[in-house]
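re: ur question from the group chat, yeah i did fold both. here u go
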Amino acid sequence: MSTDTRPTDLAPTNDDEPVLLDWLRTMREQHPVWQDRYGIWHVFRHADVEAITRDPATFSPTPPELVPAGAEVRCGMLTQIDPPEHRALRHLVSAAFIPRTVAALEPRIRAVTGELLDAAGERFDLVDALAFPLPVIVIAELLGLPAEDREMFRTWADGLFSMQVDDPSDPELAPRIAAAMADITAYLTEHCRHRRADPCEDLISALVTTEVDGRRLDDEEAANFSMLLLLAGHITTTLLLGNAVRTLDEHPGVWDELRADPSLIPGAVEEVLRYRSPFTQVGRATLRPAEVGGVTIPADALVTPWLLSANRDARAHPEPDRFDIRRGLGGGAQLAFGHGVHFCLGAPLARLEARVALEELTARYRALPVDHDAVARAGGCGTTSGASSAPGTCPCTLSPREQVGLVFQRTWPWQRYCMVY
């Protein structure tokens, strides 16, 4: 039971998970709606977080006047747009991510997973070997980008995800973001121009050739939308697989259960999403005054709903700190992918990739222990603070028919730039 403590004026970072979880527990019980030193309102309870994510008419993606740095990528960026424009843009690519279409990708996902594991050798980094390349190959093929460029994608992603941001109104933020995005924006703009001249059967071609409300996206809009799909289209699965490995290492009996009964794997994926949500929080701004948890938040205020806190709320999940693959999550109980119009477009794909990867791993290997000595020598799991998580490293050591893994947590840049869109 948490003791009554006065919160500090900033949220803790993701560096120390026990500290963060303890702080979130205290905030849920004692300060469910709280304002930090920068004037950002943080919301912690499940019911309140769900209500915010379901109400874009009140809680909008952050407008550029509140976070000027966000104006750099607002055009075509689905995370930063409200209906009706959001609905029209989302419709452009939604057919590629509906469950029926995603299900057809399973043979390819399984083949890629097998190829990556075959090539992994006896000592490898799980992120390098599987958790990063698997979803990158899949989303690159969907977009029509060369999968062999994935190391460039990773360099660009690391540059964005490692950006430390405390104050979203910092005037120095915009040039930092512009510099971090320059290469990937130029790369995707060039691909958009090529597809406009010579369309193919891929998502970038759909973005540049399909009309939205009587017009086609320009190169800037199409490149920004492509960037979101490329980065968000792999990061959630990378995080999810790393979190699954870490969590299963902490609960070794569960690995044996999954090996004995693979039908339990979808439930395990859902529980990992709840237990260690890939993105800890999202960002919104109030378009009008709103009452949340008995507290009135004024208009034009930045709001941070904590997905991780909501998924650890005992009001929604009995014994929330217990990992239970038979919990039977569904509907509004699962907030890892958000809710409402900004519900994660790629959720079906992330779930499928995670399920297939865990099926292949549990079929091949009788255990997946973390090499804690290697982690210690590497200086820990390489975490940084921030609103969400991004890939790190995963030092692995193999014994016959065994493998290891490690979780990682880093930061998305400036504005809760997560896959909840």
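okk and heres the other one u asked abt
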Amino acid sequence: MENEKLSPFLGKIQKHIQPPGKVLDFGVGYGRDAIPMAKLGFNIIGIDQSRKWIKQLEKEAKKDELKVRAVYGDITKFNPSDEFKLVLANMSLQFMKNKNEIKRVVEKMKSGVQVGGYNGIAIPTKTKVAIKFPSPLENVDALKEMYSDWEIIESGEDEKEFSNGLDGSYAWILAKKI
């Protein structure tokens, strides 16, 4: 994967996940991660509750003839089967109502991968808040706790400039189903 075309989080996990395979992107938005991953040969299903972003993703995928299926829907109600190599939620879980709702979505993510598959999450934390929707997660330890029954490949907490121009902290994890 070419780092300059990837989100910082996806750049961190690139060495662990190689095509081919199916990827489910929770909160796909306009395809910031889906489009570069599809260009590499992954088969992408992206779900988002913004019709505007779904239309934009469909347009971009069609233009480049990519294997991307955009689904309008709510990630809290989506029930994936265990067919995915990776289920990804990059900067989307902070929109959940509380920590318990995040845990429920994480359980859905966990059920969506085959044994040997991965879950990847990046989420703003309370350590240094820079966005309108601060996460109910304190730090990376909250993610590690949710994946205590999986092999944690990598995790951390970093700072980045968010789309609003402010610096803030985010926790991230890449875990493998064993």
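fwiw on the second one: Residues 3-176 form a domain with the Rossmann fold fold (CATH 3.40.50.150). The mean pLDDT is 88. idk if thats what u expected
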